[in-house]
């Protein structure tokens, strides 16, 4: 979350940022509660000073009347301190609750807008393929080649679940190994993370564990949730710690199952593998000193570009607008791969769809999770935390199916994946 004093000193800018992000939060109440907390802290300190003075006086030579008077005063001061403590706790709880609703400040260069259609395209890589036949979407390809079974996934687990079968199983593992090997080359420490995290960790990262708008599955009466991304578990890894500055930046990558309710998600492009309740993902996560985070954010985006360039998939990079950033992000880049199956009347050859993103969350998550480092001046300061998708397997597989399909109904495997999966083509079954 933002520093309370920063909110007070930059109130109008914070309120404008909330408006630009199309969010609902009350910065005025944060300032009001912050001032109230400050006054209560001062009041408590004055009372403690009075208590100390009273205790010192009690050690002197006193007649009975004077002693009884000091005892009465001491009792009154003790009661006042207890009352101030109680009020301070209540105010601090309300203050933290209100402050957590305030989004991170957006980078001044981030485009101002409300929805993803207002994201700013900054780069295109590769040229969408021109098919000499009528291309199929990934759902049709997956079913015809016996690679995906959505119907039985729905029967067994419910809508938006699926079974991967046959060569698709090896292709998923190939994508994971491809991503992990690229990240190993860039010096990332690999993890396989837990699939469950405590609610306090989710809150620290910026996810809402409960309520109708929550996108995560809460585990009843456990105070835990299924993770929606390894960003949660990697971000919570150093919760409450003071990191060694000489060891920063820390480059981590995590493989995890990801579970998302996708509450309210709908639309013609949400079908198939694009928006599901469970998928596998390799996530990048970095802890660093503040002055390095912008450069590292650029590095994470370039790694994502390297991964999709290696797969031979056309994509574009967009600078995410303020309304599509998400509360923790200071700036976010999205990579959108070309998806021929996204055909509409306005886009008869297909359209781009998001496959990865990378966010610089500055110290917003670190304040919530209390992750700091000792600076050269001896003071403990909050680290900056960044995240980025290396490979979200379902969406990468979707793009491969649709872009690498052939006229005979087969799918060619991108050359970089062949050593991992052991075949170069998926063909129709006899």
Tell me about this structure.
The protein is α+β, with helices and mostly antiparallel strands and 430 residues long. The protein contains 13 helices and 18 strands. The chain has helices at residues 4-9, 11-20, 27-58, 64-99, 138-144, 150-157, 167-185, 199-205, 230-236, 293-310, 364-369, 393-403, 418-421, and strands at residues 120-125, 148-149, 163-164, 189-192, 196-198, 218-219, 224-226, 242-243, 250-259, 278-288, 315-319, 331-339, 351-360, 372-374, 380-382, 384-392, 411-412, 425-426. Strands 1-11-12-13-16-10-9-4 form an 8-stranded mixed sheet. Strands 5-7-6 form a 3-stranded antiparallel sheet. The radius of gyration is 27 Å and the shape is elongated.
Mean pLDDT across every amino acid position: 93
Residues in helix, %: 25-40%
Uncertain stretches: none
Would you tell me the structural class of the helices and strands?
A: alpha+beta
Q: Rough shape?
A: elongated
- Global Rg: 27 Å
As laid out across the biggest beta sheet, the strand order is: 1-11-12-13-16-10-9-4
Instruction: Tell me the major beta sheet.
Output: 8 strands, mixed
- N- to C-terminal distance: 58 Å
Beta-strand portion reads 15-25%
Write down the oligomeric state.
single chain
The total of helices stands at 13
The number of E-state strands comes to 18
């Amino acid at each position: 979350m933002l520093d309370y004093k920063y909110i007070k000193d930059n109130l109008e800018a914070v309120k404008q940022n909330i408006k630009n992000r199309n969010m609902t939060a009350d910065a005025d109440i944060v300032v009001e509660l912050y001032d109230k907390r400050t006054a209560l802290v001062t009041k408590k300190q004055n009372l403690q000073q009075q208590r100390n003075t009273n205790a010192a006086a009690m050690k002197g030579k006193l007649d009975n009347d004077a002693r009884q008077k000091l005892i009465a005063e001491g009792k009154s001061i003790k009661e006042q301190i207890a009352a101030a403590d109680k009020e301070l706790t209540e105010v601090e709880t309300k203050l933290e609750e209100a402050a957590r609703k305030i989004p991170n400040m957006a980078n001044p260069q981030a485009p101002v807008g409300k929805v993803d259609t207002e994201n700013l395209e900054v780069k295109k890589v590769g040229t969408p393929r021109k098919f000499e036949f009528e291309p199929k979407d990934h759902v049709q390809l997956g079913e015809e080649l016996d690679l995906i079974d959505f119907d039985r996934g729905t029967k067994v687990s419910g809508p938006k679940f699926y079974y991967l079968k046959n060569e698709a199983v090896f292709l998923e593992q190939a994508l994971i190994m491809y991503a992990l090997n690229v990240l190993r080359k860039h010096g990332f420490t690999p993890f396989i993370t837990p699939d469950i995290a405590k609610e306090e960790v989710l809150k620290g990262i910026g996810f809402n564990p409960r309520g109708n708008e929550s996108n995560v599955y809460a585990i009843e009466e456990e105070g835990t949730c299924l993770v929606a991304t390894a960003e949660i578990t990697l971000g919570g890894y150093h919760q409450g710690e003071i990191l060694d500055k000489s060891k920063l930046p820390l480059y981590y990558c995590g493989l995890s199952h990801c579970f998302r309710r996708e509450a309210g998600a709908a639309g013609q492009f949400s079908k198939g593998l694009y928006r599901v309740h469970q998928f596998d993902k390799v996530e990048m996560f970095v802890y660093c000193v503040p002055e390095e985070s912008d450069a590292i954010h650029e590095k994470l985006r370039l790694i994502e570009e390297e991964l999709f360039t290696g797969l031979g998939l056309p994509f574009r990079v967009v600078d995410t607008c303020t309304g599509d950033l998400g509360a923790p992000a200071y700036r976010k880049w999205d990579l959108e791969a070309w998806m021929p199956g996204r055909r509409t009347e306005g886009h008869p050859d297909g359209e781009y769809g998001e496959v990865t993103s990378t966010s610089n969350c500055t110290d917003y998550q670190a304040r919530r999770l209390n992750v700091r480092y000792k600076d050269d001046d001896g003071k403990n300061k909050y680290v900056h935390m960044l995240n980025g998708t290396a490979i979200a397997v379902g969406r990468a597989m979707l793009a491969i199916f649709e872009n690498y399909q052939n006229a005979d109904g087969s799918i060619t495997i991108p050359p970089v994946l062949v050593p991992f999966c052991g075949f170069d083509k998926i063909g129709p079954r006899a």
